[in-house]
Task: structure prediction
Amino acid sequence: MAYQPEVSSPLSLAELQRAINDYGAGFILFGSIAVALGVMAIAHPYQATASVKVVSGWIILAMGISRVIEAACAPQFKEFFDHLLTGMFLVVAGGWLALFPLTGILTLTFIAALVLMLQGLTKIAIGMCIRSGTEFVFLIAGFATLIIGGFICGSLPITSGWAIGFLIGINLIGAGVTYILLAVSARLWTW
Result:
């Protein structure tokens, strides 16, 4: 018999507000830490870029090790071979990223620029398809994201040292402010 996950009903607005109020201090603390880390990443983008690369490398290395262990437990030779090859590739790639901090930053920046341009094109496509009065938000965000990705890609290799750290900093600040505002708004307004 197949596993049937238990589906819970979504929270009501009152339950959501109560939950945010209960953990509001945690939201504010997490948001404040994210903002502080974001400011530090923007102030020191080269170090932030290298740090993101090294942390990504350790995560990929751990994924590779888990795939190699998975290969040992594979019931069929085909699965063993697939898991072993994938795991070995991830171990080598993750080890390279984790242990050699200044190599590969150009490639990661190029990939990040391509992802930004793809996100921009996706947002533009969504903005052109919806007709709810908010399509201009998607179009503006899409064109801005596309331009930023194009700028980073077109300015390589100059942007490779600072771009990822700067973008991570902006993302952390945005996420931190969102968490802080969520906690404050839950205390101020009744939904």
Remarks:
- The chain has seven helices and no strands.
